[in-house]
Amino acid sequence: GSEAMAALDENMLACTYATLILHDDGLELTAENVAKLTEEAGLEVPGFWPKLFVNAIAGSNINELMMNVVATAPGGGAGGGAAPAAAAAPAGGAGKAPAGGAAKKKEPEPEEEEDMGFSLFD
Questions:
Q1: How remote is the C-alpha of 50 from its chain's centroid?
Q2: Taking a C-beta distance cutoff of 8 angstroms, is the pair 3, 42 a contact?
């Protein structure tokens, strides 16, 4: 039940964070490196997870994946959880850009300043 889902989420997050750390440090993204990082963090991740995770994102541009998730995140920004989703996106195919580049970014409308009857600099 919920314990199995919690373990699944924990394993996925552990591999996601390990992947992002390796990428950020410019180290090779291998199952062995992911497993080593999760072990050093004191996490017990089943042996198949690092290999599954690395194979799922092999050949992907992690920077591009992260930017795709940030650009499509609710609220338009990077909230908590955006980074893990970035590395996990290829597994579900959600990290790929739409074919043909048909999607256009909508520019947010500038907010008008409201006169509240006082100024901070008066």
A1: 16
A2: no
The span from the CA of 107 to the CA of 122, in Å, is: 34
Give, rounded to a whole angstrom, the gap between the first and last alpha carbons of the chain.
Answer: 61
Secondary structure (DSSP) of 58-108: TT--HHHHHHHHHHHSGGGS--TTHHHHHHHHHHHTTTSPPGGG---PPPP
Residue whose tokens read 């074919």? 99
CA angle (87, 23, 70) in 5-degree steps: 45
Cα dihedral: 4, 10, 12, 13 (round 10): 160
The answer to whether residues 89 and 69 touch, using CB atoms and an 8 Å cutoff, is: yes
The angle, 0 to 180 degrees and rounded to 10, between the axes of the packed helices 82-92 and 2-24 is: 100
Q: What is the pLDDT of residues 35-50, one digit of tens each?
A: 999 999 999 999 999 9
